[in-house]
Amino acid sequence: MNQSINPILSGIANWLLAMLAICLSFEFCHLCSWGLGASIVITPVFAYTLYYARHLTTAMGKLVATHLAQQFLSGDILCPNDTPVNNTPKSPTNNDIAMKRLDLFHSQFEKSQEELAKEVIQQKELKLQKILQYTTDTFCRIGLTEHETFQIRECVEYLVKNEKVLSLPDLKIERRPEITQISLKNFAWNIAYQYKLPGQLAAQFVMTTFHEWFADSTLYTVVKNLKTTSGNHAIPIDTHILKKY
């Protein structure tokens, strides 16, 4: 079948080349202002030129195709999908190592900050509980009622947390002659000392919380005589409260 087709295709190709040669000779004669009679001589020249050019290009095409086929079969030419993949792990650069170390430090730093914040909160809460226990023990020992002691605890907790004086409308601590102004001022100073509160704030606290004792006193005189270390008092000055609880 292929043998019968090849002569036909070759004949068609030769006929096309002859037609092309005739056309080229006519065009050439026209450009050179020659008569059409000259085309009888020029046409065979174009025909032979095209014929041999065709055979030359065919031979070169076969040669190139054969060479490429041999390279493909030998593996010198690879298909795009056959491109070898480099599975060798990429060595980390100094920048990669630095970024990993930075990420590790960042995570450790955040964790340390969180742990530190929790520790600070726990320490503050522990300190507050010790101060409140000191308050309870102090006023229970000198004879105040449970309700009165509870109110004082509320005022103390508000003072140390907000650094402000809590004024309760129904706050009522009954005055007792055995409990002196000096003892109450010493108590206020003891609390202020543990939290480094200013003396004026401590004076406002004691005057507001124990109003019946200081109804006729001024803030200036209370601040001036807030701390008394001499003599025996129901509530003495104590700078070591936290160590006792």
UniProtKB/TrEMBL annotation:
Keywords for this protein: Membrane, Transmembrane, Transmembrane helix
Record-annotated membrane-spanning stretches: 12-28, 34-53
UniProt superkingdom: Bacteria
Name this protein carries in UniProt: Transmembrane protein
